């Protein structure tokens, strides 16, 4: 059985996976070429969140450099599982606490050793 904190981390991982997959779509690549930025889903833990973020590739990759970090809409952090790292105005960056780090690290699409984590 998963705990609430684990479910929150898995929710965020799902939004991150969606963002990673969509970044490969041809229309997203064209959007980056024409505007210099792309739209991303907010990677918060709220399953009903539909906030859209606009980040450059460099901004998103800076967040993605650490498996424990996520780009979220300002104010969407969950203090019980993450800490606020930075506020960029259009988006904020949060970092997962150690206790749920294994979940978000194991589900990171950019890690070579990504594995399936049970829900």
Task: Write structural notes for this entry.
With 119 residues, this protein is of the alpha+beta class. It has one domain. The protein has a 3-stranded antiparallel β-sheet, sandwiched between helices. A two-stranded antiparallel sheet has the order 1-2. The mean pLDDT is 89.
Coarse structural class: alpha+beta
Helix content: 25-40%
Task: Write down how many β-strands occur, each being a DSSP E stretch of 2 or more residues.
Answer: 5
The largest pleated sheet is described as:
3 strands, antiparallel
Distance between the termini: 8 Å
Topology overview:
Elements (H helix, E strand, L loop, with lengths): L3 H19 L3 H10 L2 E4 L10 E4 L1 H8 L4 E4 L9 E6 L4 E5 L4 H6 L13
Antiparallel strand pairs: 1-2, 3-5, 4-5
């Amino acid at each position: 059985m998963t705990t609430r904190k684990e479910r929150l981390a898995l929710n965020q991982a799902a939004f991150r996976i969606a963002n990673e997959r969509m970044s490969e779509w041809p229309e997203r690549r064209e959007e980056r070429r024409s505007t210099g930025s792309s739209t991303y889903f907010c990677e918060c833990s709220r399953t009903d969140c539909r906030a859209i973020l606009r980040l450059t590739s460099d901004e998103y990759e800076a967040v993605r450099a650490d498996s424990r970090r996520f780009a979220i809409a300002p104010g969407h952090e969950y203090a019980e599982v993450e800490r606020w790292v930075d506020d960029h105005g259009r988006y904020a960056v949060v970092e997962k606490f150690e206790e749920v780090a294994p979940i978000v690290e194991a589900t990171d699409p950019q890690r070579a050793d990504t594995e399936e984590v049970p829900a």
